[in-house]
Write a structure and sequence with these properties.
It is built from 11 helices and 7 strands. The chain is globular, with a radius of gyration of 18 Å. Bound molecules: S-adenosylmethionine (SAM).
Length: 268
């Protein structure tokens, strides 16, 4: 069992995700169909102990608690947890500052685990996967959602890349590996039997400008890059993301379909 501290390799990510703060709840709300999909497949039952890894503003942890299970959420980003605490005050959810790679819980402490677009961002996915296996009891169930490599949620980040600092060398494994059979086998194959199915959720905005303003205000990875730019370059980023979002214009506004994979795994 690890102590709850944020390791140096997670410090930058913790700051980036924290910067979204309360506002991230807007994005979590738009991702709700994928979150509810994962909770449905997890099937939390009254009295079960369930951990939500990378809980963010606590959206999945709240869905779990609403179904009567005892819900625990962990995240590396204090800014997200502050928002989660405000949202979950009435539900008795245990929220902790902790990383997927060092979960501060005893072996087999949980009946079920969930991670919605969370553990996929671990830069040490093998370690995170073995921590999930360690804290689940034998026969315990895990539900994970992750964007597929060709998901628009990933392609949006490709628009961001030319404006971002160069990635570390060597680069961490691509988060989208959690959205492929090969990556899932690599991470989960030793300790879990698993199946997966696909899903799609839609990010909807009145127009491309509203998309830009939401993401630059509340989505840490976009906000952090935008905040690092001078005024001209920031306007170029805004133009690039507006142009990209405008490609998803419908009769009623902008509607961006984002494909994901939902994995249901059983602890061997
Ligand atoms: C895209 S948000 C998803 C939040 C939430 N699960 C949801 O569905 O709304 C990703 C979350 O994972 C957290 N995260 C990233 N890397 C993590 C790690 N190594 N350990 C724990 N949490 C992590 C971030 O701080 C962030 O809150």
């Amino acid at each position: 069992m690890a102590t709850a501290s944020i390791q140096p390799f997670n410090e930058k990510a913790a700051l980036v995700w924290s910067s979204g703060g309360y506002g991230y709840e807007i994005i979590a709300q738009q991702c709700l169909p994928g979150i509810v999909h994962a909770v449905d497949r997890l099937d939390p039952r009254p009295g079960e102990q369930v951990i939500d890894v990378g809980t963010g503003t606590g959206r999945a942890a709240r869905e779990v608690a609403a179904r009567g299970a005892r819900s625990t959420g962990v995240d590396i980003a204090e800014g997200m947890l502050t928002a989660a605490r405000a949202q979950t005050a009435q539900q008795g959810i245990d929220l902790r500052l902790a990383a997927a790679e060092a979960l501060p819980f005893e072996d087999a402490a949980f009946d079920k685990a969930i991670s919605t677009f969370g553990v996929m961002f671990s830069v040490q996915p093998h370690v995170a996967a073995s921590e999930l296996a360690r804290v689940l009891r034998p026969g315990g169930r895990l539900a994970v959602t992750a964007w597929t490599p060709d998901s628009n949620a990933v392609l949006m980040r490709q628009e961001l890349a030319p404006f971002a600092p160069p990635p570390p060398d060597p680069a961490p494994p691509a988060p989208w590996a959690w959205g492929t059979g090969k990556g899932l086998q690599e991470y989960l194959g030793a300790d879990f039997d698993f199946e997966f199915e696909t899903g799609v959720l839609h990010l909807r905005y009145p127009d491309a400008n509203a998309f830009w303003h939401t993401f630059v205000d509340v989505f840490g990875p976009v906000k952090a890059v935008a905040d690092s730019l001078d005024t001209d370059r920031r306007e170029e980023l805004a133009a690039a993301l507006r142009r990209w979002a405008d490609g998803f214009r419908s009769n009623c506004g902008v509607s961006i379909p984002c494909d994901y994979v939902l994995t249901v795994a059983h602890r061997k």
